[in-house]
From TrEMBL:
TPR repeats: 401-434
Protein name, as recorded: Uncharacterized protein
Membrane listed as a keyword: yes
Pfam families tied to this protein: Sel1 (PF08238)
Cellular-component GO terms for this entry: endoplasmic reticulum membrane
Disordered: annotated segments: 767-816
UniProt KW keywords: Membrane, Signal, TPR repeat, Transmembrane, Transmembrane helix
Organism annotation: Wallemia hederae
InterPro entries, alphabetized: Sel1-like, Sel1_AlgK, TPR-like_helical_dom_sf, TPR_rpt
Biased composition (Pro residues): 782-796
GO biological process: ERAD pathway
Position of the signal peptide: 1-21
Domain of life according to the entry: Eukaryota
Segments traversing the membrane: 726-745
Length: 816
């Protein structure tokens, strides 16, 4: 610590002694002042990193910097936070952070206990040996002091039995604390509750899934239409949200009503992807702007009420226009009711009521709900619970989810638990209602522990305004900087900082964060592995990646389940286990990639008995699930039939495909048995709840092991040599390359043949044209015919020869 202080002041003294030091210090101050999202653990940041710092013409920069240094060195928690999270220009120093937090933990710091628990839990950066017992102890100290991150971590660990006792009751206890705080904050907001944070997109989804577009379950079938998939495509093509908003603005200014509505929603929700219900998608996040939202919604309502609130006179419009205008009217009503972009007072409630009345006149169900809300709480109108209940009932009967929540609250206040639960269930089934989920979890806590646990976890993760959402935003922003900056300097530094934040969220149970950690550290990014040419595999990182692929898979993510199977198949981060891989592939039967892998394993007898009939069956199923798998399935079937013919010629038995064409139902006895076993396995997997998941084998530990430069250089992954998959992958590549070469040669030959045909036709046409024009060369042995007297044609009557020549030219041009 003393060395660090000495070096810091020595550097400061050297800077002050330099002739042009003022420029250097000012540059440092400007860079620090850009960290507007920075929030240290305990106290407000000093003036030298505060976003409100504004340079003046004659500031005493040295005094400002000196004050900041003194404040930094006098507050261990601020210093530890800066060293651990390392915003530029600070450097990451896990060892120093560990020492500082160890001292702070002795003083009772909640943040220190939380960070030490994470370091003992994961062994991050090899700063300390992983110690589950000490990790659990520090998490408990922090959680008992009210640290929400530690409470969520303990809830998750007890739910899966990772480093803590597998106990649904204890998991519910910890998660319910976070959920209680989340619902309290939600209800403390404006009418209708605080807006939920944006969803948390995965890095892999922005690439179409771990296996890319079309191959991953994340981007096939109905999943191909998810906003995050569109966002990934737009990002890869170089598009940005400014271009999209510019296009919407142009269309809206041309009178396109739907684009005015979309612009209003984009600025209101803070995302270009805004669903009808629920939080907006984080993959299209932009800054919220209530003034712009109000402007576009107001313009949309002019389609019917040209004078705005000054007159109720309506213009005659189509039903579709009425529907769009009702959306804008409801949005304006909510903004006036909630004080979003407007001053909240009695006049704003009056305007809100009028806009809801207008939307209600256009048959809006949402307006019915908000009118009930105003009568329930007495906003502008007098409080009237009967009128409110009538509005809620009408809105619920037309399928508005939050109206069911309101009715559930009415029944709950009367002590009618049965009807309250029924209404909450309807709300959750319709839209996964935030408040409805919490009410159900609370009311059914003693009846169904596991279901209540899943609901409390959902509420804690979705309503994470105070902790998780801030951490996620920080990680996302730093990852974006890593993409923009030079990978050798700040780029890698920011990538590692983002990884650290996602890693902490992963330990808290966020599936998206677990997926991100696994994806960043993934050691199996090659689609085909070539002996001697593949990048070396870092088995330490592979072990961690497998751990989080499995945790993500336990939360019902199909692609993660397949990635875990790949790791067991190839021996990445664990021993090679083809049988385990086959079990995981069979439990992923809604993925064409998993089905193809099962077929391949049946074909070669790896982890499953050799059976060409079952191999063909699974190849066919892969094509049925996803028709984009046609090329690999075709190649596999060709190879399979060639192998079957060879077995038949060499005296192979009933396993050959040729001997099973005549089966009555198309399946052999073994195939029937395997089909039954597969169905039983899928049913067993579906019965297992993710919260009862217990990790087994070498991947159960989340520790990092002893590898030098664990974080530094993690993006290079070059510490340990990888394994070769051998002859099979090389053969497959050769077959694919040969097929492509054959297709190219065939196309080239056909093109040359077509060109020769065209040349011959052109030559023949030219010859005939010359003959018809009288330009054919005379045979010297044949006397020329005697000239025939002709009449000189008049200008208005062309000669017959000219007519023939012109007609030919006309036909020739038409043919061309």
């Amino acid at each position: 610590m003393e060395i660090f202080i000495s070096l810091f002041f020595a550097a400061l003294a050297a800077t002050m002694a330099a002739a042009e030091a003022t420029t250097t210090v000012q540059s440092l101050l400007d860079e620090l002042s850009t960290l507007s999202n920075y929030q240290p653990s305990s106290i407000l940041p000093s003036r030298y990193i505060h976003s409100s710092y504004q340079p003046t013409d004659n500031p005493n920069d040295y005094d400002i910097l000196a004050d900041g240094v003194v404040e930094l060195l006098q507050d261990k928690e601020l210093l530890a936070d800066l060293v651990f999270r390392s915003p530029p220009p600070f450097k990451h120093n896990t060892s120093l952070a560990f020492d500082l937090y160890s001292e702070l933990a002795q003083e009772g710091s909640t943040t220190a206990h939380s960070v030490l628990a994470f370091l003992y839990d994961t062994g991050y950066n090899n700063v300390v040996e992983p110690h589950p017992g000490l990790a659990l102890l520090h998490y408990t100290f922090a959680a008992l002091s009210g640290d929400a991150a530690s409470e969520m971590t303990l809830g998750y660990k007890h739910s899966i039995g990772d480093g803590a006792e597998l106990s649904c009751e204890q998991a519910v206890e910890w998660y319910s604390r976070v959920a209680d705080a989340a619902i309290d904050y939600y209800l403390s907001g404006p009418p209708g509750g605080h807006a939920l944070p944006l969803s948390k997109p995965k890095l892999s989804d922005l690439k179409g899934g771990p296996y890319g577009l079309g191959a991953s379950a994340a981007s096939t079938g109905d999943n191909a239409y998810r906003p995050v998939i569109y966002a990934g495509k737009a990002k890869d093509s170089g598009e940005n949200w400014h271009d999209l908003i510019d296009y919407f603005t142009y269309a809206a200014n041309q009178g396109e009503l739907q684009y005015a509505i979309r612009l209003g929603n984009i600025y209101y929700h803070g995302s270009v992807y805004t669903p009808k219900l629920g939080p907006a998608d984080g993959s299209g996040a932009i800054p919220k702007d209530f003034s712009k939202a109000k402007y576009w919604f107001t313009r949309a309502t002019r389609k019917i009420w040209q004078d705005g609130l000054q007159s109720d006179k309506q213009k005659e419009v189509s039903n579709y226009t009425k529907y769009l205008v009702s959306i804008a009217s409801n949005a304006l009503g909510k903004m006036y009711l909630r004080g979003e972009g407007v001053k909240l007072d009695q006049s704003s409630y009056q305007k809100a009521y009028k806009w809801f009345e207008r939307a209600h006149s256009l048959q809006s169900v949402e307006a019915e709900y908000y009118l009930g809300l105003m009568y329930k709480h007495g906003y502008y109108v007098g409080a009237n619970q009967d009128v409110a209940a009538t509005h809620f009932t009408n809105a619920a009967s037309n399928g508005f989810p939050e109206a069911y929540v309101a009715l559930g609250n009415v029944f709950l206040a009367k002590g009618d638990i049965v009807n309250a639960i029924q209404n909450y269930e309807w709300a959750v089934n319709l839209s996964n209602s935030f408040e409805g989920t919490y009410r159900l979890a609370t009311l059914t806590r003693d009846q169904d522990c596991r279901t209540s646990l899943a609901r409390f976890k959902s509420v804690a993760e979705r309503g994470d305004w105070l902790v998780g959402d801030k951490m996620w935003k920080e990680a996302s922003q730093r990852w974006e900087k890593a993409v923009e900056w030079n990978k050798d300097t700040y780029g890698r530094h920011e990538a590692e900082a983002a990884l650290l934040t996602w890693w902490r969220l992963a330990e808290m149970g966020y599936e998206s964060a677990q997926n991100n950690v696994a994806f960043i550290l993934d050691q199996d990014k090659q689609r085909v592995r070539l002996p001697g040419y593949d990048a070396p595999v870092n088995q330490t990182l592979a072990k961690i990646s497998l751990n989080y692929w499995e945790k993500s898979a336990a939360q019902h993510v199909l692609d993660s389940n397949i990635k875990a199977a790949d790791y067991h198949f190839k021996g990445l981060g664990t021993e090679v286990d083809h049988k385990k891989a086959a079990e995981l592939y069979l439990s992923s039967d809604s993925s064409s990639l998993a089905l193809w892998n099962v077929g391949w394993m049946y074909e070669y007898g790896l982890g499953l008995p050799t059976d060409l009939n079952l191999a063909k069956r699974y190849y066919d199923l892969a094509l049925e699930v996803n028709n984009q798998a046609s090329i690999p399935v075709l190649l596999s079937l060709i190879h399979l039939y060639v192998k079957s013919i060879w077995q038949w010629l060499s005296g192979g038995g009933e396993n050959a495909l040729l001997f099973n064409f005549g089966l009555k139902d198309g399946m052999s006895a073994r195939e029937k048995e395997e089909r039954i076993d597969s169905q039983d396995a899928r049913e067993a997997v579906n019965r297992v709840d993710w919260m009862a998941y217990e990790e087994q084998g070498s991947s159960s530990s989340s520790g990092s092991g002893q590898t030098q430069e664990f974080v530094d250089g993690l993006l290079e992954r070059s510490n340990i040599a990888g394994q070769d998959d051998g002859f099979q992958s090389t053969t497959f590549v050769i077959v694919v390359v040969a097929l492509v070469a054959v297709i190219w040669i065939r196309n080239y030959i056909l093109e040359r043949a077509r060109q020769r045909t065209v040349d011959r036709l052109t030559e023949e046409i030219s010859r005939r044209a010359h003959e018809q024009a009288g330009h054919t060369e005379q045979n010297p042995q044949t006397p020329a015919p005697a000239p025939t007297p002709t009449t000189t044609p008049t200008p208005t009557q062309p000669s017959q020869e000219g007519l023939r020549h012109r007609n030919y030219n006309t036909h020739h041009e038409n043919d061309t």
